[in-house]
Amino acid sequence: MIAINIKNKMKQLKKISCLVVLVLTYTAVTAQSNDTLFYRHSFQANIAGLGFERYGIAYEFRITPHHALFFQGGGSFPVISEEKEYGFGLHYKYFFRPVIDAKLLWLFKSAYRNTFADFNVRYMNLDGIHNEVKCLYEAYFIGVGIGQTYIWNSGFTVSYWLGYGPPIGADFKWAGTTPADGDSWAKNYKTGSGLDFGLSLGYSF
User: Fold this and answer.
1) For 2-204, CATH number?
2) Max Cα separation, the chain?
3) What is 42-66 written as a DSSP string?
4) pLDDT at 38
């Protein structure tokens, strides 16, 4: 019964996501703006997870100066990482008024900086290891966040954000004997898995 409810929720979630995409795409086609301080497209690489043997790549479509869709995917590095993980997400971003000639770290002058609010739907799948015992984890997330994007005239882009979304329909299993701290570790992992953060470098045009 629980599995059926989760599937129904996921179907509703997909319908809502499709509706959001359609509405915002229509806005992009019909909207008129004199604000030239934005680039329509942006390709980015999330480097925040490199220390954890994780990578992330993303594409951002700036529909209007204030609205954007951000598509992100990533996972663990093949061969390098003992764990196998992949995930992806769809983010809606609302950009506030840009700050001209903003400085990154008070040192590096950019063309402008945008602060943004974020609403997202994400998915992850993990084949992990804890205390030499394999574990399997799968979950969906609906979250919110906030961040900032710096863009230079050359198109060079730096973006960072922080957010959280609780896991939905989380399924955690131990593939072998449950470790001594297995229950508490699994609980903490599921709670922490909802954390969404990033530091990306990219090119906008």
Assistant:
1) 2.40.160.20
2) 62
3) EEEEE-TTGGGTEEEEEEEEE-SSS
4) 79
Spatial distance between the Cα atoms of 26 and 127, rounded to a whole number of angstroms: 39
Burial per residue of 64-75, b for 16 or more beta-carbon CB atoms within 10 angstroms, e otherwise: bbbbbbbebebb
The tokens for 123 are 């998915």
- Distance CA(138)–CA(122), nearest Å, equals 11
Over 60: is that where the pLDDT of 12 sits?
no
Three-class secondary structure of residue 118 per DSSP = strand
Rounded CA-CA distance 119/123 in Å is 14
Q: What dihedral angle (degrees, nearest 10) is formed by the CA atoms of 157, 160, 164, 169?
A: 40
Domain ranges of the chain: 2-204
Query: Residue 147: which pLDDT band, with cuts at 50, 70 and 90?
Result: very high
Paired strand residues for 94: 67, 117
pLDDT of 59 above 50: yes
Enter the tokens of residue 13.
């979630």
Alpha-carbon distance of 105 to 162, in angstroms, equals 17
Q: Measure the CA–CA gap between 71 and 10, rounded to whole angstroms.
A: 18
Number of Cβ within 10 Å of residue 178's Cβ equals 13
